[in-house]
Design brief:
The protein has 160 residues and is of the alpha+beta class. A five-stranded antiparallel sheet has the order 1-2-3-5-4, sandwiched between helices. The longest helix is centred in the N-terminal third of the chain and has 15 residues.
Length: 160
């Protein structure tokens, strides 16, 4: 009996496992959503949050601070600014949350509005020399949930 695959024993062409049709549809749908994701500039986020004013803070967590923003059309948005990390070690968490939000759509789930992922260079003095350090801004924007947050609704500890 002949072995399947090429002369080196590795699977070839038709011997490779094929992705299921439903997985292909999911990946295709997610790919389309990713291409159409709304990019929001840091400048815009600064405007709608009054330059990330402490008075606009509506929550804090392990990955960032959430601000209440007001768009020019008067609609409120929640802006989750991820803690700055110049080493890039939290890119996995940002990517996971971004992809998860892009794949969700349900009337009982707050909708994803857009994202910000920008790198700015700023001059800093290091060892007596001017260098241009990268300052990475990452934020996720959602519909704003009136009357508190989900935890408050679940535990019955609403704000009033």
């Amino acid at each position: 009996m002949a072995a399947s695959g090429g002369s080196d024993g590795a699977p070839k062409g038709r011997d490779l496992p094929q992705p299921s049709r439903s997985r292909c549809r999911i990946n295709s749908t997610l790919g389309t959503k990713l291409q159409n994701a709304k990019r929001i500039s840091t400048e815009h986020l600064e405007v709608i949050t009054d330059n990330f004013s402490p008075e606009r803070v509506i929550g804090r967590g392990g990955y960032g601070t959430v601000y209440k923003g007001v768009n020019s059309d008067g609609k409120y948005v929640a802006v989750k600014v991820l803690h700055k990390n110049t080493t890039g070690t939290d890119n996995g968490e940002f990517k996971h949350e971004f992809e998860s939000l892009m794949s969700l759509k349900h009337r009982n789930i707050i909708q994803f509005v857009g994202f910000c992922y920008e790198t700015r260079h700023k001059p800093v003095l290091q060892d007596g020399e001017t260098i241009f350090a990268e300052d990475i801004y990452k934020a996720l924007c959602f519909e704003y949930m009136q009357n508190g947050n989900l935890k408050e609704h679940i535990t019955g500890m609403g704000r009033g």
